[in-house]
Protein backbone atom coordinates (compact mmCIF):
# COMPACT_ATOMS: atom_id res chain seq x y z
CA UNK A 1 0.00 0.00 0.00
CA UNK A 2 1.43 3.32 -1.03
CA UNK A 3 1.59 5.86 1.78
CA UNK A 4 1.79 9.60 1.63
CA UNK A 5 3.02 11.63 4.60
CA UNK A 6 0.76 14.65 4.92
CA UNK A 7 -0.50 16.81 7.76
CA UNK A 8 -4.23 16.80 8.09
CA UNK A 9 -5.52 19.53 10.40
CA UNK A 10 -8.86 18.99 12.10
CA UNK A 11 -11.03 21.43 14.03
CA UNK A 12 -11.94 20.58 17.59
CA UNK A 13 -15.64 20.87 18.23
CA UNK A 14 -16.49 22.45 21.56
CA UNK A 15 -19.53 21.67 23.63
CA UNK A 16 -21.85 24.50 24.56
CA UNK A 17 -22.96 24.23 28.17
CA UNK A 18 -26.02 26.17 29.30
CA UNK A 19 -25.68 27.34 32.87
CA UNK A 20 -28.93 28.00 34.72
CA UNK A 21 -28.63 30.13 37.82
CA UNK A 22 -31.15 30.68 40.54
CA UNK A 23 -31.37 33.87 42.55
CA UNK A 24 -30.72 32.17 45.83
CA UNK A 25 -28.09 29.64 44.74
CA UNK A 26 -25.54 30.84 47.23
CA UNK A 27 -28.06 31.37 50.02
CA UNK A 28 -30.11 29.03 52.11
CA UNK A 29 -33.41 29.07 50.11
CA UNK A 30 -36.78 28.53 51.66
CA UNK A 31 -38.81 25.48 50.66
CA UNK A 32 -41.15 27.74 48.70
CA UNK A 33 -38.32 29.23 46.66
CA UNK A 34 -36.86 25.79 46.07
CA UNK A 35 -40.15 24.51 44.65
CA UNK A 36 -40.44 27.59 42.43
CA UNK A 37 -36.94 26.99 41.08
CA UNK A 38 -37.74 23.36 40.25
CA UNK A 39 -40.92 24.37 38.45
CA UNK A 40 -39.05 27.02 36.43
CA UNK A 41 -36.38 24.49 35.42
CA UNK A 42 -38.96 21.88 34.38
CA UNK A 43 -40.85 24.48 32.35
CA UNK A 44 -37.59 25.61 30.65
CA UNK A 45 -36.61 22.04 29.79
CA UNK A 46 -40.02 21.36 28.29
CA UNK A 47 -40.27 24.47 26.16
CA UNK A 48 -36.76 25.79 25.46
CA UNK A 49 -34.22 22.98 25.17
CA UNK A 50 -33.72 21.79 21.57
CA UNK A 51 -34.84 18.28 20.70
CA UNK A 52 -32.17 16.12 19.03
CA UNK A 53 -33.17 13.56 16.40
CA UNK A 54 -31.11 11.81 13.72
CA UNK A 55 -32.33 12.20 10.15
CA UNK A 56 -29.88 9.63 8.76
CA UNK A 57 -29.23 5.93 9.18
CA UNK A 58 -26.67 5.32 11.89
CA UNK A 59 -23.95 2.69 11.49
CA UNK A 60 -25.81 0.03 13.44
CA UNK A 61 -28.66 0.12 10.92
CA UNK A 62 -26.40 -0.29 7.85
CA UNK A 63 -26.30 -3.89 6.61
CA UNK A 64 -22.80 -4.82 5.43
CA UNK A 65 -23.30 -8.59 5.53
CA UNK A 66 -24.47 -9.04 1.93
CA UNK A 67 -21.68 -6.85 0.55
CA UNK A 68 -19.03 -8.63 2.62
CA UNK A 69 -20.20 -12.10 1.62
CA UNK A 70 -20.25 -11.05 -2.02
CA UNK A 71 -16.78 -9.51 -1.89
CA UNK A 72 -14.48 -11.74 0.15
CA UNK A 73 -14.42 -14.58 -2.37
CA UNK A 74 -13.75 -12.20 -5.27
CA UNK A 75 -10.72 -10.53 -3.63
CA UNK A 76 -7.42 -12.40 -3.81
CA UNK A 77 -4.04 -12.28 -2.12
CA UNK A 78 -1.12 -11.51 -4.44
CA UNK A 79 2.51 -12.45 -3.76
CA UNK A 80 5.20 -11.13 -6.09
CA UNK A 81 8.82 -12.20 -6.35
CA UNK A 82 11.36 -9.79 -7.84
CA UNK A 83 14.93 -10.76 -8.69
CA UNK A 84 17.38 -7.86 -8.45
CA UNK A 85 20.93 -8.01 -9.80
CA UNK A 86 23.69 -6.32 -7.84
CA UNK A 87 24.33 -2.75 -8.97
CA UNK A 88 28.06 -3.43 -9.28
CA UNK A 89 27.33 -5.97 -12.03
CA UNK A 90 25.39 -3.41 -14.09
CA UNK A 91 27.96 -0.69 -13.47
CA UNK A 92 30.88 -2.88 -14.56
CA UNK A 93 29.44 -4.41 -17.72
CA UNK A 94 27.09 -1.56 -18.68
CA UNK A 95 25.26 -2.22 -21.96
CA UNK A 96 27.56 -5.16 -22.73
CA UNK A 97 26.10 -7.16 -19.84
CA UNK A 98 23.64 -8.66 -22.36
CA UNK A 99 26.54 -10.54 -23.98
CA UNK A 100 27.55 -12.25 -20.73
CA UNK A 101 25.85 -14.52 -18.28
CA UNK A 102 25.36 -13.13 -14.80
CA UNK A 103 28.09 -14.62 -12.58
CA UNK A 104 26.39 -13.29 -9.44
CA UNK A 105 23.42 -14.65 -7.56
CA UNK A 106 20.28 -12.52 -7.77
CA UNK A 107 18.66 -11.13 -4.67
CA UNK A 108 14.97 -12.10 -4.55
CA UNK A 109 12.49 -9.79 -2.89
CA UNK A 110 8.97 -10.79 -1.93
CA UNK A 111 6.05 -8.38 -1.69
CA UNK A 112 2.34 -8.76 -1.02
CA UNK A 113 -0.86 -7.07 -2.11
CA UNK A 114 -4.44 -7.70 -3.15
CA UNK A 115 -6.43 -8.04 -6.36
CA UNK A 116 -10.05 -8.11 -7.50
CA UNK A 117 -11.47 -10.81 -9.79
CA UNK A 118 -13.52 -9.07 -12.50
CA UNK A 119 -14.45 -12.03 -14.72
CA UNK A 120 -15.25 -15.71 -14.30
CA UNK A 121 -12.34 -16.70 -16.57
CA UNK A 122 -9.60 -15.28 -14.38
CA UNK A 123 -8.99 -11.59 -15.13
CA UNK A 124 -7.84 -9.75 -12.02
CA UNK A 125 -7.33 -6.01 -11.43
CA UNK A 126 -4.68 -4.77 -9.03
CA UNK A 127 -2.30 -1.84 -8.61
CA UNK A 128 0.64 -1.39 -10.94
CA UNK A 129 2.92 -0.90 -7.93
CA UNK A 130 1.90 -4.35 -6.64
CA UNK A 131 3.16 -6.27 -9.70
CA UNK A 132 5.67 -3.83 -11.20
CA UNK A 133 8.93 -5.60 -12.08
CA UNK A 134 7.70 -8.96 -10.77
CA UNK A 135 9.35 -12.12 -12.09
CA UNK A 136 6.70 -14.35 -10.53
CA UNK A 137 3.14 -13.60 -9.41
CA UNK A 138 1.24 -16.03 -7.17
CA UNK A 139 -2.47 -15.55 -6.54
CA UNK A 140 -4.09 -17.10 -3.47
CA UNK A 141 -7.88 -17.34 -3.41
CA UNK A 142 -10.08 -17.16 -0.34
CA UNK A 143 -10.36 -20.98 -0.34
CA UNK A 144 -6.52 -21.11 -0.16
CA UNK A 145 -6.09 -22.35 -3.74
CA UNK A 146 -2.94 -20.96 -5.40
CA UNK A 147 -2.30 -20.21 -9.08
CA UNK A 148 0.41 -18.35 -10.97
CA UNK A 149 -0.66 -15.27 -12.90
CA UNK A 150 0.63 -13.46 -15.97
CA UNK A 151 0.61 -9.73 -16.58
CA UNK A 152 -1.76 -8.71 -19.38
CA UNK A 153 -0.90 -5.03 -19.21
CA UNK A 154 -0.10 -2.15 -16.88
CA UNK A 155 -0.76 1.58 -16.71
CA UNK A 156 1.50 3.54 -14.34
CA UNK A 157 -0.41 6.76 -15.07
CA UNK A 158 -3.40 5.37 -13.14
CA UNK A 159 -1.45 2.84 -11.02
CA UNK A 160 -3.50 -0.02 -12.43
CA UNK A 161 -2.53 -3.45 -13.75
CA UNK A 162 -4.45 -6.32 -15.30
CA UNK A 163 -3.29 -9.89 -14.63
CA UNK A 164 -4.82 -13.26 -15.42
CA UNK A 165 -4.89 -16.77 -14.01
CA UNK A 166 -5.80 -19.89 -15.96
CA UNK A 167 -9.08 -20.89 -14.34
CA UNK A 168 -12.83 -20.88 -14.93
CA UNK A 169 -16.10 -20.31 -13.05
CA UNK A 170 -14.55 -17.89 -10.59
CA UNK A 171 -16.57 -15.62 -8.31
CA UNK A 172 -16.14 -12.03 -9.49
CA UNK A 173 -17.33 -8.52 -8.66
CA UNK A 174 -19.54 -6.45 -10.94
CA UNK A 175 -18.59 -2.89 -11.81
CA UNK A 176 -20.58 -0.14 -10.15
CA UNK A 177 -20.69 3.54 -11.11
CA UNK A 178 -18.16 5.71 -9.28
CA UNK A 179 -19.66 8.90 -10.74
CA UNK A 180 -22.87 8.10 -8.84
CA UNK A 181 -21.07 7.63 -5.50
CA UNK A 182 -22.10 10.23 -2.92
CA UNK A 183 -20.04 11.80 -0.14
CA UNK A 184 -21.17 10.23 3.14
CA UNK A 185 -22.10 6.93 1.50
CA UNK A 186 -21.13 3.77 3.36
CA UNK A 187 -18.41 1.65 1.75
CA UNK A 188 -16.37 -1.47 2.51
CA UNK A 189 -12.66 -1.99 1.89
CA UNK A 190 -11.80 -5.64 1.22
CA UNK A 191 -8.23 -6.90 1.03
CA UNK A 192 -5.28 -8.55 2.74
CA UNK A 193 -3.60 -6.07 5.11
CA UNK A 194 -0.41 -7.18 6.85
CA UNK A 195 -0.59 -10.44 4.88
CA UNK A 196 -3.91 -11.35 6.54
CA UNK A 197 -6.49 -12.82 4.19
CA UNK A 198 -10.05 -11.66 3.54
CA UNK A 199 -10.23 -8.63 5.81
CA UNK A 200 -13.27 -6.33 5.59
CA UNK A 201 -13.41 -2.80 7.03
CA UNK A 202 -16.16 -0.18 6.81
CA UNK A 203 -16.23 3.59 6.43
CA UNK A 204 -17.80 6.40 4.48
CA UNK A 205 -16.83 8.28 1.34
CA UNK A 206 -15.05 11.34 2.71
CA UNK A 207 -14.34 13.15 -0.58
CA UNK A 208 -14.12 12.64 -4.33
CA UNK A 209 -11.66 13.68 -7.05
CA UNK A 210 -8.72 13.92 -4.65
CA UNK A 211 -5.25 14.62 -6.09
CA UNK A 212 -2.53 13.60 -3.62
CA UNK A 213 0.44 13.81 -6.03
CA UNK A 214 1.85 10.31 -5.59
CA UNK A 215 2.00 8.99 -9.16
CA UNK A 216 4.59 11.52 -10.29
CA UNK A 217 4.21 11.48 -14.06
CA UNK A 218 2.86 14.66 -15.68
CA UNK A 219 0.26 12.58 -17.52
CA UNK A 220 -0.88 10.72 -14.40
CA UNK A 221 -4.59 10.66 -13.56
CA UNK A 222 -5.20 11.31 -9.87
CA UNK A 223 -8.88 11.63 -9.07
CA UNK A 224 -9.17 9.38 -6.02
CA UNK A 225 -12.17 8.48 -3.90
CA UNK A 226 -11.19 9.31 -0.30
CA UNK A 227 -12.62 7.15 2.49
CA UNK A 228 -12.08 6.55 6.18
CA UNK A 229 -12.34 2.77 5.85
CA UNK A 230 -9.27 1.24 7.51
CA UNK A 231 -6.69 0.39 4.82
CA UNK A 232 -3.11 -0.74 5.42
CA UNK A 233 -0.13 -2.30 3.66
CA UNK A 234 -1.31 -5.31 1.74
CA UNK A 235 -4.68 -3.70 0.91
CA UNK A 236 -3.19 -2.29 -2.31
CA UNK A 237 -5.22 -3.53 -5.27
CA UNK A 238 -8.13 -4.62 -3.10
CA UNK A 239 -11.77 -3.71 -3.54
CA UNK A 240 -13.78 -0.72 -2.42
CA UNK A 241 -17.44 -1.73 -2.65
CA UNK A 242 -20.78 -0.15 -1.81
CA UNK A 243 -23.38 -1.72 0.46
CA UNK A 244 -24.79 -3.80 -2.41
CA UNK A 245 -21.36 -5.30 -3.08
CA UNK A 246 -20.68 -3.51 -6.38
CA UNK A 247 -17.09 -2.53 -7.10
CA UNK A 248 -16.69 1.26 -6.98
CA UNK A 249 -12.91 1.55 -6.60
CA UNK A 250 -9.51 -0.12 -6.31
CA UNK A 251 -7.70 0.75 -3.08
CA UNK A 252 -4.33 2.31 -3.82
CA UNK A 253 -2.91 4.56 -1.10
CA UNK A 254 -3.11 5.87 2.43
CA UNK A 255 -2.14 9.22 3.92
CA UNK A 256 0.03 8.54 6.96
CA UNK A 257 2.89 9.87 9.06
CA UNK A 258 3.76 6.38 10.29
CA UNK A 259 3.18 4.13 7.28
CA UNK A 260 0.04 2.60 8.81
CA UNK A 261 -3.58 3.70 8.67
CA UNK A 262 -4.38 7.05 10.31
CA UNK A 263 -7.84 7.68 8.95
CA UNK A 264 -7.35 8.54 5.29
CA UNK A 265 -7.34 6.08 2.40
CA UNK A 266 -7.69 6.54 -1.35
CA UNK A 267 -9.16 4.41 -4.12
CA UNK A 268 -9.06 4.64 -7.92
CA UNK A 269 -12.64 5.21 -9.19
CA UNK A 270 -14.08 2.18 -10.95
CA UNK A 271 -15.13 4.20 -14.01
CA UNK A 272 -11.43 4.82 -14.68
CA UNK A 273 -10.71 1.16 -13.93
CA UNK A 274 -13.29 0.05 -16.53
CA UNK A 275 -11.64 2.22 -19.19
CA UNK A 276 -8.12 0.95 -18.42
CA UNK A 277 -9.21 -2.70 -18.32
CA UNK A 278 -11.04 -2.42 -21.64
CA UNK A 279 -8.00 -0.85 -23.30
CA UNK A 280 -5.55 -3.42 -21.94
CA UNK A 281 -7.77 -6.30 -23.03
CA UNK A 282 -8.36 -4.92 -26.51
CA UNK A 283 -5.06 -3.25 -27.36
CA UNK A 284 -2.52 -4.01 -24.64
CA UNK A 285 -2.00 -0.24 -24.42
CA UNK A 286 -3.98 2.60 -22.87
CA UNK A 287 -5.87 4.79 -25.33
CA UNK A 288 -5.47 8.06 -23.44
CA UNK A 289 -7.67 10.93 -24.57
CA UNK A 290 -6.64 14.58 -24.25
CA UNK A 291 -8.81 17.67 -24.48
CA UNK A 292 -5.82 19.82 -25.43
CA UNK A 293 -5.74 22.57 -22.79
CA UNK A 294 -3.38 23.80 -20.09
CA UNK A 295 -5.38 24.49 -16.95
CA UNK A 296 -5.21 25.76 -13.38
CA UNK A 297 -7.60 25.80 -10.44
CA UNK A 298 -9.53 28.92 -9.48
CA UNK A 299 -9.64 30.26 -5.93
CA UNK A 300 -11.42 33.33 -4.54
CA UNK A 301 -8.49 35.68 -5.15
CA UNK A 302 -8.02 34.49 -8.73
CA UNK A 303 -11.77 34.77 -9.36
CA UNK A 304 -11.64 38.41 -8.23
CA UNK A 305 -8.66 39.00 -10.49
CA UNK A 306 -10.56 37.54 -13.45
CA UNK A 307 -13.72 39.45 -12.60
CA UNK A 308 -15.77 36.29 -12.16
CA UNK A 309 -19.08 36.44 -10.35
CA UNK A 310 -18.68 32.93 -8.88
CA UNK A 311 -15.73 30.78 -7.85
CA UNK A 312 -16.46 27.85 -10.14
CA UNK A 313 -14.83 26.05 -13.03
CA UNK A 314 -11.15 25.86 -13.98
CA UNK A 315 -9.10 28.42 -15.88
CA UNK A 316 -7.82 27.66 -19.38
CA UNK A 317 -4.25 28.96 -19.20
CA UNK A 318 -3.33 27.74 -22.68
CA UNK A 319 -4.67 25.80 -25.65
CA UNK A 320 -2.64 23.22 -27.58
CA UNK A 321 -2.53 24.18 -31.24
CA UNK A 322 -4.35 21.64 -33.43
CA UNK A 323 -5.71 19.95 -30.31
CA UNK A 324 -9.37 19.13 -29.84
CA UNK A 325 -10.17 22.22 -27.76
CA UNK A 326 -8.38 24.54 -30.20
CA UNK A 327 -10.19 23.12 -33.20
CA UNK A 328 -13.55 23.39 -31.41
CA UNK A 329 -13.04 27.06 -30.60
CA UNK A 330 -11.99 27.11 -26.94
CA UNK A 331 -9.42 29.83 -26.23
CA UNK A 332 -6.94 30.89 -23.55
CA UNK A 333 -8.71 32.83 -20.82
CA UNK A 334 -11.92 30.78 -20.97
CA UNK A 335 -13.23 29.23 -17.77
CA UNK A 336 -14.18 25.60 -18.31
CA UNK A 337 -17.36 24.83 -16.36
CA UNK A 338 -18.50 21.32 -17.31
CA UNK A 339 -17.90 18.29 -19.52
CA UNK A 340 -21.01 16.42 -20.71
CA UNK A 341 -22.98 18.41 -18.10
CA UNK A 342 -20.72 17.15 -15.29
CA UNK A 343 -19.53 20.18 -13.26
CA UNK A 344 -15.75 20.66 -13.30
CA UNK A 345 -14.22 22.69 -10.46
CA UNK A 346 -10.75 21.17 -10.08
CA UNK A 347 -8.01 19.93 -12.35
CA UNK A 348 -8.38 16.42 -10.89
CA UNK A 349 -12.10 16.40 -11.71
CA UNK A 350 -11.31 17.24 -15.34
CA UNK A 351 -8.63 14.55 -15.56
CA UNK A 352 -10.91 11.97 -13.98
CA UNK A 353 -13.74 12.79 -16.38
CA UNK A 354 -11.67 12.93 -19.59
CA UNK A 355 -9.77 9.81 -18.46
CA UNK A 356 -12.94 7.77 -18.97
CA UNK A 357 -13.06 8.56 -22.71
CA UNK A 358 -11.22 7.37 -25.83
CA UNK A 359 -9.55 9.41 -28.57
CA UNK A 360 -12.09 10.19 -31.25
CA UNK A 361 -15.00 10.58 -28.83
CA UNK A 362 -16.81 13.92 -28.78
CA UNK A 363 -17.61 15.63 -25.48
CA UNK A 364 -19.74 18.71 -24.82
CA UNK A 365 -17.73 21.39 -23.03
CA UNK A 366 -19.34 24.46 -21.43
CA UNK A 367 -17.13 27.52 -20.85
CA UNK A 368 -17.50 31.00 -19.42
CA UNK A 369 -16.03 33.66 -21.70
CA UNK A 370 -16.39 37.23 -20.50
CA UNK A 371 -19.33 36.13 -18.33
CA UNK A 372 -21.10 34.58 -21.30
CA UNK A 373 -21.93 30.86 -21.37
CA UNK A 374 -20.67 29.09 -24.51
CA UNK A 375 -20.85 25.41 -25.48
CA UNK A 376 -18.46 23.49 -27.73
CA UNK A 377 -18.29 19.94 -29.06
CA UNK A 378 -14.68 18.83 -28.60
CA UNK A 379 -13.19 15.82 -30.37
CA UNK A 380 -10.66 14.22 -28.01
CA UNK A 381 -7.26 13.20 -29.40
CA UNK A 382 -4.40 10.95 -28.35
CA UNK A 383 -0.92 12.07 -27.32
CA UNK A 384 0.18 12.10 -30.96
CA UNK A 385 -2.62 14.50 -31.87
CA UNK A 386 -4.66 11.94 -33.81
CA UNK A 387 -7.73 9.79 -33.16
CA UNK A 388 -6.16 6.54 -34.33
CA UNK A 389 -5.80 3.50 -32.10
CA UNK A 390 -2.36 2.88 -30.59
CA UNK A 391 -1.60 -0.81 -30.08
CA UNK A 392 1.11 -2.24 -27.88
CA UNK A 393 3.53 -4.74 -29.36
CA UNK A 394 3.26 -3.55 -32.95
CA UNK A 395 6.78 -3.84 -34.35
CA UNK A 396 8.31 -2.74 -37.62
CA UNK A 397 11.61 -3.43 -39.36
CA UNK A 398 14.13 -0.77 -40.38
CA UNK A 399 16.63 -1.87 -42.99
CA UNK A 400 19.24 0.82 -42.24
CA UNK A 401 19.42 -0.13 -38.60
CA UNK A 402 18.96 -3.82 -39.34
CA UNK A 403 16.55 -4.14 -36.46
CA UNK A 404 12.93 -4.47 -35.44
CA UNK A 405 11.56 -1.77 -33.16
CA UNK A 406 8.39 -0.74 -31.35
CA UNK A 407 7.16 2.17 -29.27
CA UNK A 408 8.02 2.09 -25.60
CA UNK A 409 5.18 1.55 -23.16
CA UNK A 410 3.76 4.00 -20.65
CA UNK A 411 5.33 1.91 -17.90
CA UNK A 412 8.78 2.22 -19.47
CA UNK A 413 8.31 5.95 -19.98
CA UNK A 414 7.39 6.39 -16.33
CA UNK A 415 10.21 4.19 -15.05
CA UNK A 416 12.91 5.89 -17.13
CA UNK A 417 11.59 9.43 -16.87
CA UNK A 418 11.31 9.93 -20.64
CA UNK A 419 8.36 10.79 -22.88
CA UNK A 420 9.39 9.22 -26.20
CA UNK A 421 11.55 6.54 -27.79
CA UNK A 422 11.58 3.33 -29.81
CA UNK A 423 12.77 0.07 -28.26
CA UNK A 424 14.92 -2.38 -30.21
CA UNK A 425 13.21 -5.78 -30.09
CA UNK A 426 15.42 -7.75 -32.47
CA UNK A 427 18.83 -7.08 -34.09
CA UNK A 428 19.49 -8.92 -37.35
CA UNK A 429 22.27 -6.92 -38.97
CA UNK A 430 23.03 -3.38 -40.14
CA UNK A 431 24.68 -0.64 -38.15
CA UNK A 432 23.23 -1.62 -34.77
CA UNK A 433 24.90 -5.02 -34.83
CA UNK A 434 28.18 -3.43 -35.93
CA UNK A 435 27.97 -1.06 -32.99
CA UNK A 436 27.22 -3.80 -30.45
CA UNK A 437 23.73 -2.53 -29.69
CA UNK A 438 21.50 -5.28 -28.35
CA UNK A 439 17.82 -5.90 -27.77
CA UNK A 440 16.23 -3.66 -25.17
CA UNK A 441 18.08 -0.53 -26.21
CA UNK A 442 15.78 2.50 -26.52
CA UNK A 443 16.55 5.03 -29.25
CA UNK A 444 15.48 8.50 -28.17
CA UNK A 445 17.31 10.78 -30.63
CA UNK A 446 19.02 10.61 -34.02
CA UNK A 447 21.04 13.56 -35.34
CA UNK A 448 19.27 15.94 -32.99
CA UNK A 449 15.74 14.74 -33.86
CA UNK A 450 13.49 13.17 -31.24
CA UNK A 451 12.38 9.67 -32.23
CA UNK A 452 8.71 9.16 -31.44
CA UNK A 453 7.42 6.92 -34.25
CA UNK A 454 8.37 4.90 -37.32
CA UNK A 455 7.86 8.02 -39.42
CA UNK A 456 10.17 10.21 -37.32
CA UNK A 457 12.83 7.46 -37.37
CA UNK A 458 12.76 7.22 -41.17
CA UNK A 459 12.88 11.00 -41.56
CA UNK A 460 15.90 11.27 -39.25
CA UNK A 461 17.76 8.43 -41.01
CA UNK A 462 16.95 9.77 -44.49
CA UNK A 463 18.42 13.19 -43.73
CA UNK A 464 21.42 13.32 -46.10
CA UNK A 465 22.90 16.53 -44.71
CA UNK A 466 25.41 14.55 -42.69
CA UNK A 467 27.51 11.54 -43.48
CA UNK A 468 27.30 10.48 -39.85
CA UNK A 469 24.39 8.98 -37.95
CA UNK A 470 24.59 10.07 -34.31
CA UNK A 471 22.28 7.93 -32.22
CA UNK A 472 21.38 8.55 -28.56
CA UNK A 473 19.46 6.28 -26.22
CA UNK A 474 19.47 4.24 -23.05
CA UNK A 475 18.97 0.76 -21.70
CA UNK A 476 16.23 -0.25 -19.28
CA UNK A 477 18.64 0.04 -16.36
CA UNK A 478 18.98 3.76 -17.12
CA UNK A 479 22.49 3.62 -18.62
CA UNK A 480 22.65 6.23 -21.42
CA UNK A 481 24.76 5.57 -24.50
CA UNK A 482 25.68 7.60 -27.60
CA UNK A 483 26.86 6.01 -30.85
CA UNK A 484 28.17 7.47 -34.10
CA UNK A 485 28.04 5.54 -37.38
CA UNK A 486 29.30 6.34 -40.88
CA UNK A 487 26.61 5.97 -43.53
Provide the low-confidence segments as ranges: 6-32, 49-56, 88-104
The top-level CATH class of the largest domain is Mainly Beta
Shape: globular
Structural domain count: 3
CATH topology of the largest domain: Thrombin, subunit H
> How would you state the average pLDDT, rounded?
82
**How much helix is in the residues?**
10-25%
Give me the CATH architecture of the largest domain, please.
Beta Barrel
Q: Distance N terminus to C terminus? A: 51 Å
- Tell me the fraction of residues in β-strands, as a range: 25-35%
How many runs of DSSP E, i.e. beta strands?
26
Largest sheet: 7 strands, antiparallel
Instruction: Please state the CA-atom Rg, rounded to the nearest Å.
Output: 29 Å
Task: Tell me the number of helical segments per DSSP (H or I, 4 or more residues long).
Answer: 11
Question: Structural class, judged by helices and strands?
Answer: alpha+beta
Describe this structure in words.
The chain is α+β, with helices and mostly antiparallel strands. The protein has three domains: 1-50 and 63-285, Thrombin, subunit H, CATH 2.40.10; 293-379, Pdz3 Domain, CATH 2.30.42.10; 396-486, PDZ domain (Pdz3 Domain). Helix content is 18%, strand content 33%. It is built from eleven helices and 26 strands. It has helices spanning 31-47, 65-72, 87-93, 128-131, 270-282, 300-306, 324-328, 347-354, 410-416, 430-434, 454-461, and strands spanning 2-4, 75-84, 107-117, 123-126, 136-140, 146-155, 160-165, 186-191, 199-210, 224-227, 239-242, 247-255, 264-269, 293-297, 314-319, 335-339, 342-343, 362-369, 372-379, 396-398, 403-407, 422-427, 442-446, 449-450, 468-474, 480-486. Strands 20, 21, 22, 23, 24, 25 and 26 form a seven-stranded antiparallel sheet that branches. Strands 8-9-10-13-12-11 form a six-stranded antiparallel beta barrel. The longest helix has 17 residues, at 31-47.
Amino acid sequence: MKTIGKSFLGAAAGTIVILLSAALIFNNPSEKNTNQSKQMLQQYEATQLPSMSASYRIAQEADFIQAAEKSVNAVVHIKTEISVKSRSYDDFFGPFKYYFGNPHRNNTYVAFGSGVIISSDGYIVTNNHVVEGADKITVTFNNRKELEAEVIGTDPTTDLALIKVDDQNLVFLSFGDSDAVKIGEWVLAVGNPFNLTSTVTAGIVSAKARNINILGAASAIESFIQTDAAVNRGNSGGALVNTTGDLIGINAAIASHTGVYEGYSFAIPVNIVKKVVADLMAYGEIQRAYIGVQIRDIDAAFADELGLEDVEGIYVAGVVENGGAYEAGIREGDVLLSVNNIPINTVSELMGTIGQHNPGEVVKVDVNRDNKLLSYNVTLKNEEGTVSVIKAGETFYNETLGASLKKISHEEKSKLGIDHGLKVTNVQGGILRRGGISEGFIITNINGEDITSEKSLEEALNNKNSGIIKLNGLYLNGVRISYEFMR
